[in-house]
Structures are given as C-alpha cells and as structure tokens.
Automatic annotation (TrEMBL):
Belongs to the cutinase family. Its EC number is 3.1.1.74. It comes from Oidium heveae. This is cutinase. The keyword Endoplasmic reticulum does not apply. One of its GO terms (molecular function) is cutinase activity. Keywords: Disulfide bond, Hydrolase, Serine esterase, Signal. SUPFAM superfamilies: alpha/beta-Hydrolases. Pfam families: Cutinase (PF01083). One of its GO terms (cellular component) is extracellular region. GO terms for biological process: carbohydrate catabolic process. It catalyses: cutin + H2O = cutin monomers. It is an enzyme of class 3 (hydrolase). Residues 1-20 form the signal peptide.
C-alpha cells in the first residue's frame, strides 16, 4: 500500500505541475493557435526529414572566424541546440558545408527551452534574447563574416 500511495502522490504532483504550466500560459492558448500547432506537427511528420548529420549541437562561434556564420534556433521539442537527424537545421548545414566547404561556414545553435508554451507565446522571450546576443557576438567578434539568421518553427519565431 505504501508503494501505491507514493505512486498516487507522484501522479498528483505531476498532474498539478502540468495544470500550473497550462494556467501560467493559458492566455497564449487560442483555438487558432492549437489548429496551427496541429498543422505544423502534421507537416513535420509527413516530411520526415532525415540527414546523415550526427550533431544536434553546434557551437562554432567560439572557434576561429569563418567567411559565413549561421545562427540557428531549433524547433519546438527538438534536441540539442540545432535539432537532430530529422530536423531541417542539420540538413541545411550539411548542404552548406558540402557546397561552401566546412572551413568556410561556422554554425552556432541557440540554447533555449523550445517547449510548446514558448511556441504559443510567439517564441520564447529568453531564447530571443540569446539569439540576439549570439548575433551581436558574431558581428563584433568576426566583423568580416556574413551572418545568416535561421530557425525552424519556434526557432524562426525567435529571430
């Protein structure tokens, strides 16, 4: 019975956490946004993007300056700071590196929560600030680089 009581307590605790998160973000949830989310997820599932890229995290802004610097923010629920194998980010980077040479392209991902509540708010505010700060850093640190701002789904909302 003790195990059952602990399990019930944990279930209620988890449920109360979910309700608190929904209540905190309730003003951002509208039927139109829910419909938009469903369409985005359906589109994403239908495409099933796959790449041979293994990195879901890119932090090349801390390295040497290159002719092109890409600042990229992943979509809602994606891994790392640029998304995994099924994300358009790594596929884009792979193509850019193939066409331009990896010695000419620096990729920097944006670390942010990338959860559904940030998406419903129109983009995570903290993530937007991190995106801005990385862009400023790239511009001041590598003054001759061409900066490409990119993102997928919520990541595009940050820019």
């Amino acid at each position: 019975n003790l195990k059952m009581k602990n399990l019930s307590y944990l279930s209620l605790l988890s449920l109360s956490t979910v309700f608190a998160a929904i209540r905190e973000n309730y003003d951002a949830v509208t039927p139109l946004r829910i419909d938009a989310i469903e369409r985005v997820f359906a589109f994403y599932q239908a495409r099933q993007i796959t790449t041979t890229a293994n990195n879901d995290t890119e932090n090349e802004l801390s390295g040497p300056c290159k002719p092109v610097t890409v600042i990229f923010a992943r979509g809602t629920g994606e891994s790392g700071n640029v998304g995994g194998r099924h994300s358009p980010g790594p596929a884009l980077f792979s193509e850019m590196r193939t066409m331009m040479g990896s010695q000419n392209v620096a990729i920097q991902g944006v670390d942010y929560r990338a959860d559904i509540f940030g998406y419903l708010k129109g983009g995570d505010p903290d993530g937007s600030m991190r995106y801005y700060n990385l862009t400023e850093k790239a511009a001041s640190q590598c003054q001759d680089t061409k900066i490409v701002l990119a993102g997928y789904s919520q990541g595009a909302q940050l820019a």
